[in-house]
Write a structure and sequence with these properties.
By secondary structure, the chain is α/β, with parallel strands linked by helices. The chain contains nine helices and eleven strands. Strands 3, 4, 5, 6, 7, 8, 9, 10 and 11 form a nine-stranded mixed β-sheet that branches. A two-stranded antiparallel ribbon has the order 1-2. α7 links the parallel β7 and β8. α1 packs across α4 and α2 packs across α3. The protein starts with a helix and ends in a 5-residue tail after the last helix. Belongs to the LysR transcriptional regulatory family. It holds the Pfam family LysR_substrate. GO terms for molecular function: DNA binding; DNA-binding transcription factor activity.
């Protein structure tokens, strides 16, 4: 068994399909299938249970995956030692909720790219939980710490949210305005369910995207919960009822536990956490009326 075979095996294990693995490896799915079959033939046992839903690992496949992930981390570490303290290189994909992806990561990524010109950075903005086991991303930012899986979880920073409406609002009770918020049956994390704290049940204008919600509020005639760090991007909006309604949530950085052995991933995590903390603080100061 050689590393190239293990690399193909890991791609199928993470994507649970030949097509997905082929996209990751830039290889024809039929070729991926032949490589998996050859590996299984050499072992004399099946690594995957095939079904119309895809490729699921057998017990042997799970054990081999764990060993392969460790070997992958060891290889990455060896390559990093050869690079010394040079700038970060290669490709990194960061998965994040779209609020973080739209209003925080562009500034953080710009500074990271400037300091590491050999690093290619991809941001996966997803209104759902990013699947690290399938390698949808190398790092994931979440609003709740995951409770299962072999993962490393670090708290990044807290952030604040307030009720906001258009500056042209005529006055009265802003909670009587139509409410902008998430599509109720598409809320992917309990921390994003604000209705109970608003004392409301109906969302008149809804989207699964925070960025779309912000644009809805900018049209006027409605109110909704907004991240303070997003308000500098929407000068038409103002916070209201700040003495009665103030929410706080947090971001967490999540990665595969095996990545703790990787100096490159540790350095990326450290820089990303510091950058996000600084950016949340900067934008919240602006939202509160302070100078940037």
């Amino acid at each position: 068994m050689n590393w190239d075979d293990l690399r193909v095996f890991l791609a199928v294990a993470r994507t649970e399909s030949l097509t997905g693995a082929g996209q990751v490896l830039r290889m024809d799915p039929a070729t991926v299938g032949r490589r998996v079959a050859r590996l299984e033939e050499g072992l004399g046992r099946a690594l995957f249970a095939r079904s119309p839903r895809g490729y699921a690992l057998t017990d042997l496949g799970v054990r081999l995956r764990d060993h392969a992930v460790q070997a992958e981390a060891a290889l990455d570490a060896a390559l990093e030692e050869g690079q010394g303290e040079a700038g970060l290189t290669g490709t990194i994909r960061i998965g994040a909720p779209d609020g973080c992806a739209n209003f925080l990561l562009p500034q953080v990524v710009a500074r990271l790219a400037e300091e590491n010109p050999g690093l290619d950075i991809q941001v996966l903005a997803a209104p759902r939980v990013v699947n690290l086991s399938r390698r949808e991303a190398d790092l994931a930012i979440t609003v709740s710490p995951p409770k299962t899986g072999r993962l490393t979880v670090q708290r990044i920073t807290g952030y604040r949210l307030h009720l906001a409406t258009h500056r042209d609002w005529a006055g009265g009770d802003p909670l009587a305005l139509p409410l902008v918020g998430y599509i109720p049956d598409m809320i992917f994390d309990a921390e994003l369910d604000y209705l109970g704290e608003l004392g409301r049940e109906r969302v008149a204008r809804a989207s699964n995207s925070v960025a779309v919600q912000l644009q809805m509020l900018r049209q006027g005639g409605a109110a909704g919960i907004v991240h303070d760090f997003a308000l500098p991007f929407a000068p038409e909006l103002v916070r209201v009822l700040t003495d009665r309604l103030s929410l706080e949530r947090a971001f967490y950085l999540v990665r595969d536990a095996a990545d703790r052995r990787s100096d490159r991933m540790n350095r990326l995590a450290e820089v990303l956490i510091a950058g996000l903390r600084a950016e949340v603080m900067r934008l919240e100061r602006i939202a509160a009326g302070d100078q940037p």
